[in-house]
Amino acid sequence: MMAPVTVIGAGLAGSEAAWQLAMRGIPVELWEMKPRKMTPAHHSPLFGELVCSNSLRSDQLENAVGLLKEELRRLDSLILACADETRVAAGGALAVDREGFSRAVTERIRNHPNITVMEGEVMTIPSEGEVIVASGPLTADSLAEDITKCLGQEDYLHFYDAAAPLVTVESVDMNCAFFASRYDKGTPDYINCPMTREEYLVFWQELCNAQEAQVHGFEDGNVFEGCMPVEVMARRGEQTLCYGPLKPRGLRDPRTGQEPFAVVQLRRDNENGSIYNLVGFQTHLKFPEQKRVFSMIPALRNAEFVRYGVMHRNTYLHSPGLLDRYYRVKTIPRIVFAGQITGVEGYVESTASGLLAAVELSNRLLGKSPVDFPQETAIGALALYISNETVGIFQPMNVNFGIIPPLGYKVKGKRNKNATLSQRSLECLETLLPKLTWQL
After folding, report:
1. Contact 236, 142 (CB under 8 A)
2. Which of 13, 231, 384, 440 has the greatest number of beta carbons closer than 10 A?
């Protein structure tokens, strides 16, 4: 009888990895420290909890993350299946009912006969056997110390991640807001809260001066650019927010027929549309300050905040030279990493790393040849980027067309070029599918 594979962590990467292994007939022991131990960013004991946002970003093939999602769908991803089942309206993006999504992932994992869920904190990497470490960006100190000891690597990199606050839809003043999607793409699913120049400048000044909660070691320069707290962004300049989360481009206020000076967008956070999150408003302001400053947005003057934003530490490896294209530790191939701890950034990217790691591990255990996802595919390009020893200053990376090889010929228009790149990627993937079947 085959010994079970140990998977540490039941986030998106760990759940996906456990599922892919189990579906290929490989027994799995999936360790999850919740609910026995929770982190400041977690609010639920369910698996696959979405912390920073409920959006899995663009669902269009002209966008690299849209391509990656389509690849995952064709690879029978658990996470994408659950996301599609619990999606909520969000224009051209794939957003989900946060609780419904996590519940769907949890039920499938717990009901699979090849998966045994083990509750409790893992303090050390098992000394024997195959293991996938998907402990996430919130890896506990004890396990992080053991990983460092095991790898013999002292230069761990840390950054801080921030989650946006949530408000009830009934508390939004729709006399000061309107439904629309930017450039009228998709359906008008976002609540847009416009601000005049005068309103924005008062808000911006108060945001810059608002009091932050204390976090040891937090400095503006250490914040990962992709999930920067809104107050840190504001301090970079008066107009910075207007080119970021408050960008008014492509949004026309039906009351004036004009683009506002600035717009705060709210995105649906659950299926019935009772809760919305402030898009791009990841923050670590003190809770009373969040209430005070964000209520200065006209449409949110009486907003009911059901959750305030929080800041938490994220941990990731310096993966180039340490991991290979299968997310295995080069010097200890029985140890595999997956998820944001590898330096992939984002929910979809974490899922992709868990899937690829499990596919390679299962093929190895079943005596099959490895599946080399080429760089022309989004899932392959991401794995090859984080394992590329020539990468100089390494930091977490979202999937993007810049890490996928160019076409070699010109296509007029960026969207057309990206669509052609996606078509090529999916054609490459189709040739691999026979090697990825669940049937033994």
Report:
1. no
2. 13
